[in-house]
Specification:
Distance between the termini: 24 Å
Number of strands: 19
Strand order of the largest sheet: 3-2-4-5-6
Shape: globular
Oligomer: single chain
Strand content: 15-25%
CATH architecture of the largest domain: Alpha-Beta Complex
Radius of gyration: 25 Å
Length: 589
Amino acid sequence: MKHRWIPREIDDDADVEQLRRDLNDLPEALARSLACRGVTSLEAAERYFRPSKDDLHNPLLMQDMATAAERLGRAIEQGERVLVYGDYDVDGTTATALMTHFLREQGADARYFVPDRIEHGYGLCEAGIDHAAAEGASLIVALDCGVTAHKQAAYAREQGLDLIICDHHTPPDELPDALAVLDPKRPDDPYPFGELSGCGVGFKLVQATLNSLGLPPERAEAYLDLVAIATAADIVPLHGENRILLSTGLDRLRRKKPRTGVRTLAETAGLDLPDVNVGRLVFGIAPRINAAGRLGSAERAVALLLAEDEGRAREWAEELEQTNRERQSIDRDTEREAAERARRYLTARDDRRSVVLHDENWHPGVVGIVASSLVDEFHRPTILLTTVNGTVKGSARSITGINIYDAISTCEDLLTEFGGHDHAAGLSLPEENLPAFKECFNEAVNEALDGRMELMRPAVKVDAPLNLDEVGGMEDRFWAVLRQFAPFGPANHKPVFVGRGLELADRPRTVGSDDKHLKFRVRQRNGRTANGKGLDVIGFGKAEEHLSKLQESHRDGTPFEMLFSIEENTYRGRTNLQLKLRDLRLQEA
């Protein structure tokens, strides 16, 4: 699949030159990469490279926060029972653990409830509200859900329960009738940053409640490890407050004594917390927490995160490890079947720019993961659906440039419920509406693509051109600065550079048990290191697409150009810089 190479835009080239001067003759490729991220002054660069808790916003700027903090503080002071209600994904379970631990630390009688994916479905449900009433709670704090729960909010009020909603999903035009609705995406919310995770909103409520109780808000920093896990796992944009929360949370995980549950989970997964980064959170910690709610009860994950007893924590961590292995097996089988069906679905009609598949036997806990995999393979907005208790339910994922929430909302009259944001959403509908929904959704995607068919080709956004002679080694300034661009994620991806006029420094070869990966060394043609051994390049899954081009370059001496990021690679105890191949093409004479 041919990619589009799209240079990232900057407002003014003069900013690049000014940054170079301000930062002691910083290499142009790095200055341009900073400008692409909106970092265009010395002051902004200092904030970017040194994220500080001092730059977090006052939580009381958030709409309804003062009301929520006063009510939660009163519940603590008066010894009321509080039910913490969270979603079953990583964001929801970490938020549930955060709020429950905080309330118990203050001496409150806090219980928690996480809905079962199959029995209750997503979000606030009447069964959870009934559970709160049966437990004798007077207040529910809902985390990572609730902003669309009009009926459930009314039901809670009928039961005599106060409800505080802490959400971060796109709100409807009319908000639920709750005591407080905390959501920085509210159109009427003056809060300066709208991209917090659900756990991040819960963290803000903890800060404000501490202030309401006359306690130092800094005590909330004990929960930054949980906020970091949620921020990394929920794929929220990593700029502004999210970058600060993630950076400081990672620092806490690396340097402070981690909470027992997180430490045992990391040990069971074979992860070394002193070296933890975003990738290890996303691919090591998060899947194991997620597995609890995908195959069974997510309350197991909350119990682990709250655990203080070493033995119990290890039992739960090992249980989640096994559950995650089961989830991976189901993933592989479902993905294999869904991919084959997607090929047939797309070839059946020329006008299909989306994929909507339904199978009543697919496990509801994996359809979101598999939908993401199909987007990667077919580059189409994709919805995977299964049947739960007679209702069709599923998950949607999208491509860059197509707002999946907006596309689904055009079919609202066919749905029972839906919610989400630009790139991901969940939905449910009666099975008899499925044929009409497929047509409606495909039409919405086609309309969104009208005049923008280039979106159907995947794009790689390029930060800057880079001469490989500038890279140097791990001790050189280039890498010393580049590594400080981390943590990486949405809105702060690893910089992607384009190298031109390149040549091979050895013969390319395939590696891996299935020979799908590429390994070679590259150097700058006619550069000062042209006769050197060059830099290592790894291309995961790139052999089929690019091996023949490299063989031609090696045979004929044809130069090539390449998109790549730069990272550390440790092999047999030695750590060196390595280029990670994104795309490659031969250069014309």
